[in-house]
UniProtKB/TrEMBL annotation:
Database matches in Gene3D superfamilies: Enolase-like C-terminal domain, Enolase-like, N-terminal domain
Organism this protein belongs to: Nocardia vermiculata
Name by which UniProt lists this protein: Mandelate racemase
Entry keyword set: Magnesium, Metal-binding
Lineage: Bacteria, Bacillati, Actinomycetota, Actinomycetes, Mycobacteriales
GO biological process per UniProt: carbohydrate catabolic process
Cofactor note: Binds 1 Mg(2+) ion per subunit.
Sites where the protein binds Mg(2+): 205, 231, 257
Amino acid sequence: METPVRLHGDVANALVNFSSHTISLVAVVSDVIRDGKPVVGVAFNSIGRFAQSGILHDRMIPRVLAAPPDSLLGEQGRIDPAKVLRCAMRDEKPGGHGDRAAAAGALELACWDLDAKLDDEPAYASIARHFGREPITGGVPVYAAGGYYYPDRGIPQLREEMRGYRDIGYDAYKMKIGGAPLADDLARIEAVVEIVGAADRVAVDANGRFDLAAATDWAQALSPYKLRWYEEAGDPLDFDLNQRLTDSYAGPVATGENLFSVQDVTNLVRFGGMRRQRDIFQMDAGLSYGLTEYARMLGVLESHGFDRGFAFPHGGHLLNLHIVVGLGLGGCESYPGVFQPFGGYSEQCVLADGRITPTDAPGFGLEQKTGLAELITELLE
């Protein structure tokens, strides 16, 4: 089952106003009964793309429900997320990795949540075991993503926002650029650097706003600051622009959140000029067919000599926190102040010294998150 949920708030980046955005909340209901209720796997299609109700209800969910149950099970008798993904994608032509990638991602990730709950363990433990890894202990590095454009806020409110993130335990931050004139945005950057105390703790994100000329002009302006990274300067599929940017900008760049397939990532590492031990990959399982495809993306990176420690999934939510811990990635984004009720983490997750630790609640722990827990209950009624 699926329901679209509208995000809270009126925030915008350089290109998109999110006030009308929705997310697909998906549940996979099993026939296992515990405490008088069926065990249910829950997930969503990450943040930044609209809900995918039509694709899920018209194509993917009917395919899965029509399949022989045994065809969707793995060796241990648990539902196999990879088999569910293949079933959901039956008769879909190759290419065109857009909204259907997010629809499939929500469905596939709900299967991971279900399997972890059936094993009564957190999703990160199930993920680590499946891929033959040991989960990260002691928390993972996390950065607070904010600094959006609001119709009624200026630099004083931006300072207050970033000070708030600092005071609750974050020590790395990301803010938006490209939605204001260059001089104004540089003033915004300087205000944030002053609050957090070091430019190398601040990343900036243009959300694909710039053409090549603007991207390189901005790179020149940003170079003296020595920022943490310069994110998605141009269109995410303009690999030539990214390559030219990395040729001219010495600081780290980040991209990948809008790449939805293994082939997209292969093209990025072949043609995008990404530099080993410097640049950041931000692919997001919830937008790209789920964890099965995401793990294959990591395989592409490593086969080309890149380190998974430079993978920081986009999204800022509990799904990716568990994926980072389970797969041993470099760190995680967080939306502590925006994109509720999906953004950020549950109150039970421990944040200290810039690192976050998930709880040991079964699955992704979505039922522990205020606002989201109520929506899950409504979906299942």
